[in-house]
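re the bet — no i am not wrong, look at it urself. input seq straight from the record:
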Amino acid sequence: MTNFEWLTMGAKIAFIVVVLLQVVPIMVWVERRGSALMQNRLGPNRIGPLGLLQSICDVVKFFFKEDRAPGHVNKFYYTLAPLIVLVPAFMTFAVIPFASSIVIDGQTVNFQIADLNVGLLYIFSVASLGVYGIIMSGWSSNNKYALLGSLRSTSQMISYELSMGLSIIGIVMVFSSVELGAIARGQGEAFFSVGMLTIPKWGIFIQPIGFIVFLTSVFAETNRLPFDLPEGESEIVAGYHIEYGSMKFALFFMAEYINMTVGAALITTLFFGGWQMLPGMHWLLEVMNLDGMAHEWVRILFEAASFGAKVCFFMWFFVWVRWTIPRFRYDQLMDLGWKVMLPLSLVNIFLTGVLIYYKVL
């Protein structure tokens, strides 16, 4: 790699890490204010305007709070578990493109940390590592509630990872690629036109069944309501992290919100055009009438803003669903995964094959 490539790689890594770290305090505030809005409460409103600085105070509290491991835990694995949950959450974002590409001094810069030709396979393989941290935390805590929570998480992830993987087979069949950048570019094409209205080839339009299955599976994989059985406060107190406090608990907390961000980014990339511009942005770019590199940088800015807006919507959707739908019973969770999601994803693959054969897709 040249010095230029090392520099751009470092800049992209730093940017993504900083953004993901900022997501946590922002989403904590959004979660609190969002739940208050839905329940006719005020939420945090004491520290800073609209309580915006409350999350910063929480971060400071976690840093300085006493961190003692209970005497009955296996300290090595107890300490290691939060890191094993957090690190894969950061790693999965590496292959997600948040804008297209730009040519600088004859060199093409992709706005994606790692442009792998097996991007989807990488995400599924790395994301599945997080469950080992949850199992490790439950086992090493030597607590029956923690162990029960980790076992729930294991069976839940196995049940819904299968449906999640099958739900995107249709997308792979249509775009003939498992590279996320190629899938995002492919969604810039027109699906069909009716008069002056052009429907883009977004995944939501060509794979509506796959989208429903994938969206449901993302909720299950991120342990968010109504699929938060591994925590189940009303049943098993707090599940796999019941024995954790201070920064160790905060790491689990961070991993959950970063996994939410990755899930929202994946939904955006696979089903909502990724960095493809929102309606009206192309017209605005033409009206600005810029030339050369100024035009290219504004285009990249618009693409990144479009990607960010779509991700933010789905981050809010996570909060919306959490405070709207109650938690499933465990038998309902398993029935949904094996008796509804799995058959539905198989039917979707069959239908996609038929539509491709008859050249509808």
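see?? The mean pLDDT is 88. told u. also The chain has one domain: 69-357. so pay up
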